[in-house]
Write a structure and sequence with these properties.
This protein has 159 residues and is mainly alpha-helical. The protein contains four helices and four strands. 43% of the residues lie in helices and 10% in strands. The strands form two sheets. Strands 1-2 form a two-stranded antiparallel sheet. A two-stranded parallel sheet has the order 3-4. InterPro entries: E3-bd_dom_sf, Lsr2_DNA-bd.
């Protein structure tokens, strides 16, 4: 929950106070827009400039997904916010279209087993006392026997 109020100690500028730590970082698209220039934040009468710098730095470190945007005027801050919200709306619509398209996809059929290598066929042949050369092409008849044995589930060194 964010509230906005005028604070005399902060030079009369608007101060954004949040009731929960990290609420903005939990929102998919969030930003903090400051209606003052960066250097004016250090010209506060009742707060040391180093304290302001530490606060900004701590926020950026704790919530790296939430940018802090310094705008010189309220008009510029409103314009930036308007454009940010428009871009966020378009991004959300694109994500919804993508999610719907992903849900509509069918799962792929299971992959066929990898084709046998000559080394597997030679090993299978040697365990079944079939003579085959150490090099060169495997005879078609032997490869057919090997594939039939593989389909039956004869896995003795069959890969």
């Amino acid at each position: 929950m964010a509230t906005r109020r005028r604070d005399r100690r902060a030079g009369g500028g608007a101060v954004l106070r949040t009731t929960g730590r990290g609420e903005l970082s939990g929102i998919p698209r969030a930003a903090v827009v400051v209606e003052e220039g960066y250097s004016r934040g250090f010209k506060v009468d009742y707060v040391r400039p180093s304290l302001v710098a530490e606060g900004i730095t701590e926020c950026q470190i704790r919530f790296p997904n939430v940018p802090i945007i310094f705008c010189e005027t309220r008009k510029l801050a409103q314009e930036w916010t308007y454009r940010f919200l428009a871009a966020a709306r378009v991004g959300l619509a694109e994500e919804m279209v993508g999610a719907n398209a992903a849900r509509a996809l069918e799962s792929a059929p299971p992959l066929a087993p990898a084709p046998p290598t000559p080394a597997y066929a030679r090993r299978w042949a040697s365990t079944h006392d079939i003579v085959v050369s150490d090099r060169g092409r495997i005879p078609v008849a032997l490869m057919d026997q090997y594939l039939e044995a593989r389909a039956r589930g004869d896995t003795s060194t069959c890969s």
